[in-house]
Amino acid sequence: MKRTLVLGGGGVTGIAWHLGLLCGLQRAGVPLGNAGTIIGTSAGSVVGTLVAAGVDLEKAVALQETPADAATPSSPQATSVAAPPSPRAAGPAGDRWLTAMAVLADPSVPTMEARTRVGAMALAAAGDEAAYLERMRPLIPVADWPAADLRITVVDTADGRDRVLDAGSGATLLQAVAASCAVPGLMPPVTIGGRRYMDGGVRLGAAADLAEGADRLVVIAPLAMLDRKRIRDEMAASGAGRSLLIEPDAAALEAFGPDLMDARRRPAAVRAGLRQAGVLADDVREIWS
């Protein structure tokens, strides 16, 4: 039986909620870390790496509950240190990010055209790639790809094509995660094999369609409310015999607040994940067992 775990994007608060949810499910006797395949996008690439690397989820949750100003770069989950600036507070960078999202959401623009436009925006706004990689380094607790089947989504800035990076892709783990988290207009695209890659979230959805061949499929998507139909279509396309979409409930969304990059909301978001896990444990157990 093949179990696949898909983790979607959702910023700094999405990382915290992901970790709270996974830890809470583990406490309830439903460890999703035993998935045969883990597919991560953007924030989900960070969490997927932690899970695949076997990081202690209890310690990860404790770090997320640490106030943002108390986190240190030596903490693997110190997202307040490595996180990009807030889209709402970043001035021109925030404007570029919002413009990119508007292009992707415009139904009158063909998908690949929209992606290439956003890719051009990302390149035009590119900052210091080396400095960005160093900011991301504290988020990754291991240097090498885990033995687990970890797959990370990115999008090519030049042609808009999405690509799945894994241990055999030629990318370092740091490069893969940083590229998947490189929000257009906020962080510079990452160079891998001579090409520049940006946030895997540009492909929209949650990448559940990449779970083809799964018998059991759990999709955790912090931003499902923005693209629920697409995600469900992806899940159907995977052909999984049993599947479940987990999204934030009203209380979790309130915990996130209006700015997904606001590290001050990590404690509330991780607690929302822990609480929601208790509500969902039986449903997840039925799918995963």
From TrEMBL:
<dbReference type="Pfam" id="PF01734">
    <property type="entry name" value="Patatin"/>
</dbReference>
<feature type="domain" description="PNPLA">
    <location>
        <begin position="5"/>
        <end position="212"/>
    </location>
</feature>
<keyword id="KW-0378">Hydrolase</keyword>
<feature type="active site" description="Proton acceptor">
    <location>
        <position position="199"/>
    </location>
</feature>
<feature type="short sequence motif" description="DGA/G">
    <location>
        <begin position="199"/>
        <end position="201"/>
    </location>
</feature>
<feature type="short sequence motif" description="GXSXG">
    <location>
        <begin position="40"/>
        <end position="44"/>
    </location>
</feature>
<feature type="active site" description="Nucleophile">
    <location>
        <position position="42"/>
    </location>
</feature>
<dbReference type="InterPro" id="IPR002641">
    <property type="entry name" value="PNPLA_dom"/>
</dbReference>
<dbReference type="InterPro" id="IPR050301">
    <property type="entry name" value="NTE"/>
</dbReference>
<feature type="region of interest" description="Disordered">
    <location>
        <begin position="66"/>
        <end position="92"/>
    </location>
</feature>
<feature type="short sequence motif" description="GXGXXG">
    <location>
        <begin position="9"/>
        <end position="14"/>
    </location>
</feature>
<dbReference type="InterPro" id="IPR016035">
    <property type="entry name" value="Acyl_Trfase/lysoPLipase"/>
</dbReference>
<keyword id="KW-0443">Lipid metabolism</keyword>
<keyword id="KW-0442">Lipid degradation</keyword>
<protein>
    <submittedName>
        <fullName>Patatin</fullName>
    </submittedName>
</protein>
